[in-house]
Automatic annotation (TrEMBL):
<feature type="compositionally biased region" description="Basic and acidic residues">
    <location>
        <begin position="11"/>
        <end position="21"/>
    </location>
</feature>
<protein>
    <submittedName>
        <fullName>Uncharacterized protein</fullName>
    </submittedName>
</protein>
<feature type="region of interest" description="Disordered">
    <location>
        <begin position="159"/>
        <end position="184"/>
    </location>
</feature>
<feature type="region of interest" description="Disordered">
    <location>
        <begin position="1"/>
        <end position="21"/>
    </location>
</feature>
Length: 492
């Protein structure tokens, strides 16, 4: 089951002291682009073992069904010919939103009811059609196998849930106590080197993980001056260090720079951080403390979704459409729940109307739905985003993605990312070029793997990209496939 490349939820949690020394790179278009501590504060517990256990079961069930559909036991030729020689097709791409539709069918204790629900799901894309193209016997086999698998691992999943909520006693086990740790970190109020101000000044530091050097060299040889970028070839391998975290993938490098750093910069420049200051204060002000922590995803996931949507299969229908969001805000307006700060988002939604055919409406529906689905993954691994009452300073619940404040912020932030004024797409291409040049330089031996690439997003517009040594066809490929670094699937 194919997931987004990285929604930011895979980031290591133990934050090391960052080093001040940087080696900078200047090759082609690459110009001179030049620690965190943990403290405790109390945070009321909203997460429960049972909730996390259920989310763990769903996540593992999705992986099990993905392996079944992918026919991973076959060699590549057998898999390609599966539709001709076997009872079912090989399906390697099941998006996270479509997975949300089919998983309850396979997990339904009653196979008859599960099959009835499964058979009633309408396909909107080729991948969805292939996923649904199984008969009752195949469904029953997968249903039974999944049930047996979940029963076999039930205790393991329950222990995993307990571990994430338990006090941390072993630094060797990063999952132990991860949710209480995140809850304390959310509201500790300490500015770190990863605050918006510091990240804007210092930039994102990218290096080559020594364990990934041979993969980079092999990818450079494979690219051989052709169209396909080295970044595409190695995007599923842990070849980078990103802001000091080794064993990182391309997706994390782009997510940190474009979705987090540039995303927060756009929100600040357009006044959205000020406009929704109360909401951000209620979740711990990640812009002032650490834009990469759990709460930073409330903003960064919007940019990630915009990139992920760019390579979506034609015909896809999201779980929540722009028309659904408009209907919800219409109800809020009728109940008197909207204030002046919500009116711009309401205006944007009304401008999109009830027609989901415009690109902005299609993107908004997908990006919001993607965030809703990925929230379950965040809750499972890192806990809920807590929200405090600004008067009592007590945690009053989880940040509600359908609240007037967050929904309005989401709509406005998404609108800004699509606006030509903010050059989101142009800066993403600039970033992809710089990263591609860096990997090519290391892969070819022109640059020592010990040297870092330090990118300050705000400086990219001043770089003379006419000096690049990349093949024009490769740059055109990255332009046409600008969301390639957000998904794990290979783009051919």
């Amino acid at each position: 089951m194919t997931e987004p490349g990285n929604g930011g939820f895979e980031r290591p949690i133990d934050l090391p002291q960052q080093h001040e020394e940087h080696s900078e790179v200047a090759l082609g278009a690459i110009s001179s682009l030049v620690g965190t501590r943990e403290t405790s504060t109390s945070a009321e517990r909203l997460d429960t073992v049972e909730e996390i256990f259920v989310l763990e079961q769903r996540a593992q069930a999705a992986k099990f069904i993905a392996r079944t559909y992918a026919l991973s036991e076959l060699d590549p030729l057998e898999r390609a010919l599966a539709a001709l020689n076997r009872p079912m097709h090989a399906v390697t791409h099941i998006g996270n939103q479509f997975a949300t539709k089919i998983m309850p069918c396979f997990m339904n204790p009653d196979p008859d009811s599960g099959w009835e629900a499964f058979s009633s799901i309408p396909p909107h894309t080729t991948d969805e059609e292939l996923t649904l193209l199984i008969d009752r016997e195949q469904f029953d086999g997968m249903h039974q196998s999944l049930g047996e698998y979940l029963d076999e691992h039930k205790e393991e999943y329950h222990q995993a849930a307990e571990q994430r909520l338990a006090p941390r006693t072993s630094p060797e086990n990063p999952d132990q106590g991860i949710i209480p740790w995140n809850d304390r970190y959310q509201f500790n109020g300490n500015e770190t080197q990863r605050s918006l101000e510091n990240m804007t000044e210092r930039g994102v530091r990218i290096s080559i993980d020594p364990n990934g050097l041979e993969d980079v060299r092999a990818a450079y040889t494979m690219a051989d001056g052709g169209i396909l970028p080295v970044t595409e070839i190695v995007k599923n391998k842990e070849v980078l260090g990103v802001n000091g975290f080794m064993s990182s993938k391309i997706a994390l490098a782009v997510h940190d720079s474009i979705d987090h750093t540039m995303g927060f910069q756009i929100a600040e420049r357009t006044g959205l951080l000020f406009k929704y200051a109360n909401m951000f204060e209620s979740i711990g002000n990640p812009q002032h403390t650490d834009i990469f922590k759990r709460e930073g995803e409330a903003l960064a996931s919007i940019g990630f979704g915009v990139r992920y949507w760019a390579n979506l299969e034609h015909g896809f229908v999201p779980l929540v459409t722009a028309a659904d969001l408009l209907a919800r805000m219409d109800q809020m307006f009728d109940r008197g729940e909207l204030t002046d700060r919500h009116m711009e988002a309401f205006k944007i939604l009304r401008g999109l109307g009830h027609n989901d055919n415009s690109r902005e409406a299609q993107s908004l529906g997908f990006v919001f739905s993607n965030y809703i689905v990925e929230l379950d993954e965040q809750r499972r691994k890192h806990g809920k985003i807590k929200q405090k009452d600004l008067v009592t300073k007590k945690v009053e619940g989880e940040l509600d993605p359908f609240s007037a404040d967050y929904l309005s912020f989401f709509v406005e932030m998404h609108h800004q990312l699509l606006s030509s004024h903010n050059k989101h797409r142009d800066n993403l291409l600039r970033y992809h070029i710089l990263l591609e040049e860096y990997l090519c330089a290391v892969g070819s031996g022109q640059l020592s793997p010990d040297q870092e690439l330090v990118i300050r997003v705000q400086d990219m517009k001043d770089i003379d990209f006419s000096q690049t040594k990349l093949p024009p066809s490769r740059i055109q490929w990255m332009t046409r496939n600008y969301g390639f670094s957000a998904i794990r699937d290979a783009i051919l």
